[in-house]
Prior knowledge:
By secondary structure, the protein is α/β, with parallel strands linked by helices.
Amino acid sequence: AFKAAVLIQQWYRRxxxxxxxxxxxxxxxFQSIEYACEQDQIKLHNxxxxxxxxxxxxxxxxxxxxxxxxVSGESYKEAELEKYCDYESIEVPDSYTGPRLSFPLLPxxxxxxxxxxxxxxxxxxxxxxxxxxxxxxxxxxxxxISHVSTCYSEEVTVCGDLHGQLDDLFLIFYKNxxxxxxxxYVFNGDFVDRGKQSLEILIILFTFLLIYPKExxxxxxxxxxxxxxLRYGFTKEVMQKYKVxxxxxxxxxxxxxxxxxxxxxxxQKVLVIHGGISDTTDLDMxxxxxxxxxxxxxxxxxxxxxxxKPEMQAINGESKSGTDAAGNEAAPRLSLQPxxxxxxxxxxxxxxxxxxxxxxxxxxxxxxxxxxxxxxxSEELTCSSMVSLKDVDExxxxxxxxxxxxxxxxxxxxxxxxxCRENKxxxxxxxxxxxxxxxxxxxxxxxxxxxSHECKQEGYEFCHNRKVLTIFSASNYYEIGSNRGxxxxxxxxLIPHFVQYQANKTAxxxxxxxxxxxxxxxISRVEESAFRALREKLFAHTSALISAFKAYDGDNTGRxxxxxxxxxxxxxxxxxLPWRMLRPQLVRSTEDGMLEYKSWLDxxxxxxxxxxxxxxxxxxxxxxxxxxxxxxxxxIDRDHxxxxxxxxxxxxxxxxxxxxxxxxxxxxxNDLVRSIDFNxxxxxxFNEFLEAFRLVKQCQ
Length: 700
């Protein structure tokens, strides 16, 4: 009996260990694919930024289009924005049966919204715009770093990413209670994208923010960014739900997002930020940054900022020679040094300050005339162009320094190793180690950090000697049963207390089954979804995989070893996955340890082939590029109508042709756009855009 018990125990431990290994592999697949998509988004944005830097508009019409296309929302002044989003001119019909809002808001309004959204009702566009207008006015009064005290309420509840999953928010309120004078909340960014009800989440949170401004606090996340929204779903969601006024609503959301505070400080001891920190994170700088300048954190520089660098060099007395720090010849640029007057001595600070203000203003006026920038576009001056007597002895940060501060706190992740390095996995922010955390906490006399930004299987996770806490509130993020959501409650003692949950009923049943001793049901379901996504990724890189396999097949036998298969796959996909461990789920076992890679790729193609029987090579390209194509389409479609006008296509093509050095006349561009307009309605929809891409690829 004793030997039997030991045998059963050994078998059970091996069984649990195998399940845990499968769980970890599944998790790595999901995260690797997610971060690879974020890399693609940033690469795509950098590509368009490069085009913008290289493209010189030949007319004011082209310049206006480019401004609308890439500087969305920033050219609107206060009065212009209110006039554009005039909610009072929108009538609510008598047939409307949804919730109604009147300001100032009351708790009953929030309750009515919750009940309406549970019944799948939609708030009228007039009330949405009115709510956004009031929210924007309130956010503009808030500091960059909000301060919360547990003295006024017994505890503070901190929630992580929600990502459009309204059921999770409902469950949090059901378990923890609605916001109230005795129930404070901090929502730590990433309210939108991926899920299908981002709009409803924002409406609820903004409503509670206006009702309880001292008890509800919202931090900005990396997804509160209109460039990210173009790819991950929020832009599409708004336009589908509000076809008539969607453009105005999106414009207001873009402006509201840039006014969200950047961090929250609880009892001066716990800092809540969305992503993380770096070795250069400076809370003093973060407190003073003009945060609304950064409509999109992905977009750092604009044309009218090209003059900022020479200005800073002139102020700091730096060299303006024709070489850069590396000794390379610098690109020609406008000189901003005074031509007629000699700079007064800095000993007379008042005289120097007046001279500097006058000189900078004159040179900025000259630059605006040269590039035909209107006065309304010139408001976003760097602090170097607003020097006063007080500013002469104070630090003056460049736009890039400010941008990096915000980028780091929104995009960074912790790592177990020491130091701080670029976050190449996501493509933005940095990785920071326990030593960086320790120095930061010591510098600002903090106990620990709370951040979100990363999905965790249990909904939360400590790292860096329990000095960094990750909280993630979107349950079933990758797949039903993939992870729990969680929120954390802090009392006056600042000891964290966690509450975990899974909002989906199916996931709840699976969890109950798991408790009864059959975890394989849950793991198998999530694992199947992960490998399905991984097979799609492999299929999307068929051509590159064939080239990589042939490098190991010198005799052209069509066969390679399984070890070489794993090495080749990683060299192409670069996901950092344990391919040898995943191989049994992806490759059929062979007796001689060799793989017929062409047959294996054909099997992948059979799995992905659509009902239209598109040629495998075409389907591969569309799979690999569909997200990028859809993002490009939405960038070109600046009015978010779901259609690209001929003018939008023509001007965008000029960007591409300037980058590729292709000379094409206006008549040639007109012929091209008419050939893509298959139904001849004068516009290009996404299906026509995708079909044109498919046909061009098919002809190659």
